[in-house]
Amino acid sequence: MLLSLAFSALAFEDGARSSALYEPESGTFIYENNADDRRLIASTTKIMTALVIIENCGLDEVVTVPKACESVPGTSLYLRGGSKYTVMELLYGLLLESANDAAYALAVHCSGTIGSFAWLMNKRAEAIGMTNTHFENPHGLDGAEHYSTAHDMALLAAEALKNPTFSLIVSTKTAKVMGRTFSNHNKLLWSVDGLIGVKNGYTQAAGRTLVTACKRNGMTLIYVTLSDADDYNDHAAAYDWGFEGRKVFRTAAVGEPCAAIQVVSGDKSHVRVVPTSQTAFLLDEDEEITQEIYLPNFVYAPVAAGDYAGMIVYEKDGEEIYRADLVYETGAKVLWPTRQGIFDKIFGYFSR
User: What is the distance between the alpha carbons of residues 258 and 250, in angstroms, rounded to a whole number?
Assistant: First the structure.
C-alpha cells in the first residue's frame, strides 16, 4: 500500500532536482519533488549492490580480487589482483569508503561477470517494485541505461534496511577492516539526531546524490535527493520538518492476541484470537484511529487453531479504513462429561 499525502499546514522545499521523503511502515510519501524523473544515481547504486551480495553470498566467503579491479575508475581501495578478502570486509569498503573496485570484486565473485550481476540487481529491483529503475553496473559510474528515481530509491532503502547486516554497516561511523580504518562518507551520521545511514554518491553528470534514513520517537523516515548541491542541509531540514506533528499508528500485529472467546464444553475455558494481517497509518499528531472487535459471546468445542473467529475493524473520522480477520490462536477439544451407566450404579449399590 503506497500513499501520497500533502500536509498543507506545514511547508517544505528542497533544492534537489528530484527528491522524496518516505515513511515506510505506512507506505506514505510525505513529500515528492519530481520523484518519478529518471536520473543518474552515482554511488547510491551500491545500496542495491550490497543487498544482492548479502542475500546471495556468505559473509565469510573469500573473494579473490580480479586483475580488472586495478583499472576500475573512481573511488578505490586500491585492491590488487589476486589478493583475498572476505565478503564482509569488502562490504565495509563498499558502503563506508564507497569503493568502486570493491563493488567490481564483489559482483564478479557473486555472478561471474558484471552483466550477470546487473541482471540480478534488476530482478531484485523488479521484486521491490522499482518500476523506473535499471542497473547496468554495481558501482554507479554513469551509464546510458543506468538510472533510477527518488521514489524508487526510497523503496530500495526501505527494503535494504530490513536486512540487519546492511543496517549495521551503513550506520557505522568508522571501522577497522583489512588493517585500515574506514570512515563513512555520510557525514550526517555525526550531526543529525537519529540518523541511521544510508549512502551518498557523486559523479559530475549525476551531481550529489544522497539516500538517508532517520529514526525518532519510534518512527523511521527515508529521504532521497538526486542532484542536490546542498544535500546535507536539505536532509537535516527534511527530518526536522517530517517528524514534526506526525505519528505512526500500527494495527494489532499478526499473531498478537487481542481478545479471547469463552469455549463451552471444551478442555479450555477460553481461546485467544489473533489477527491475520496488519498495517500502519501515518497521522497528524491530533488524529485518532478507533478499533472495534467483532466476536461471538461464546463458541462450542471443538475449536481448531487457525479457524476464522471474527474480525477487527479500524475507523478514522467514522469511516472504516482497515479490517483484519481474527483466527483462533490455539484449538480446544471437546471435554465429554463423565456419565455413570445403570450397571455401574447397580454394582455400586450392592458393593456398599
Answer: 13
